[in-house]
Amino acid sequence: MTLSERDQQHNWHPYTQHKLAKPAIAITKGEGALLWDENGKEYIDAIASWWVNPYGHSNRFIADAIHKQLTSLEHVLFGGFTHEPAVLLSEKLMEILPDNQKKIFYSDNGSTAVEVALKVALQYFYNRGEKRIKIIAFENAFHGDTFAAMAASGISFFTEAFRGSLIEVVRIPVPVKGKEQESFEALEKLAKTNEFAAFIFEPLVQGAAGMVMYETFALDKLMTICKENEVFTIADEVMTGFGKTGQNFACDYLESQPDMMCLSKALTGGTIPMAITTFTQELFEGFYSDDVNKALFHGHTFTANPTGCAAALASLELLQSKEMQHNIQRVHQKHKEFQVKISSHPRVKETRTLGVIFALEIKTETSESYYGDFRNKLYDFFINHGIVLRPVGNIVYILPPYIISDKQLEKVYSVVEEALEIV
């Protein structure tokens, strides 16, 4: 029995309708931008395995840091205790985060990072005796699959079954070109009601919506509206963080600074699950009290896991290296060259790029569903040609490891071009 066949006996995969899905591809090895399956077939991982492996698979530098940490302290509870990797990581992050960020809360993944942020926003006002129990979010947002994060997400088929069990979230239009004023007016109308605790957003790029992009000035304006009305701003940088947009964080492009930031995915270079939510001093002080009931009663067994912190420290070192910064700019330049080449193709409706993110929208006669037949044909075409890409409906996006070679990138582009002619 193959590994793929054995997998089907017991494993339940994410975002999968198993009655309709093909057997999962069994991967046995990864190195750099490449993966190999149990039959020896090679794949280029053109989405960095859901955006988590910017420095490539089986990165020796991160692996060595993990091994070293495992031989001294693999884990210790973070309730009432601390350790050097967590202290050092918080210090290192403070050097590159927006300068209003002062406190760090550790959790396990992107969803929990968002969950923590939303709970802090709601409880902050509860601690002050104010009733602000609603959240503002963008249309078609995606912030995760735990309950508060799911409520903030706007992709309906992900959340439809739980509609009556979620916190109240009101959505505003994404300020894409031509809709900026509509977005501003919608937010201002909500913010002035004093009913909303926070506005959560994916800064500059909506990932799961198909890499939908909008301009810096628009987000700055939205954040200013929130500040004027005491609505906290939460930047969900789970996808965009750690170099994806060309800066360390998408928020680095802004004049405004968010009150909270959510980080995960590339935080540990794709090695160990870990997440972080960062806060201003003002938010922390909203819980600093002689009343124990005003504390943030939230925690995770593996909060600030030392091994994960060691992986994150190694990842930050790689991110800040001249070589990796050069790679980010190199990939961006290759994307721009491909954008110029492919934009005039008769089947291309639109292209967009920022940092190492590239997206291409294919013209179709009808609206394509998120996991519909057209998307599945594209996915199968890419897999058959040894490329790992996960289209969103009729949108193909490329978000590769920073260390991908020019030759590997050219192959990805070539297969995308071929798909436009065949699929």
UniProtKB/TrEMBL annotation:
Binding site for substrate: 50, 265, 299, 390
A Pfam cross-reference name: Aminotran_3
Enzyme nomenclature, EC number: 2.6.1.62
Positions marked as site (Participates in the substrate recognition with KAPA and in a stacking interaction with the adenine ring of SAM): 15
Pathway(s) annotated for this protein in UniProt: Cofactor biosynthesis; biotin biosynthesis; 7,8-diaminononanoate from 8-amino-7-oxononanoate (SAM route): step 1/1
Chief location: cytoplasm
Keyword S-adenosyl-L-methionine found: yes
Subcellular location: Cytoplasm
GO molecular function terms noted in the UniProt entry: 2 iron, 2 sulfur cluster binding; adenosylmethionine-8-amino-7-oxononanoate transaminase activity; dethiobiotin synthase activity; pyridoxal phosphate binding
PANTHER family (UniProt xref): ADENOSYLMETHIONINE-8-AMINO-7-OXONONANOATE AMINOTRANSFERASE
Subunit note: Homodimer.
Protein name, per record: Adenosylmethionine-8-amino-7-oxononanoate aminotransferase
Species per Swiss-Prot/TrEMBL record: Flavobacterium microcysteis
Gene name per UniProt: bioA
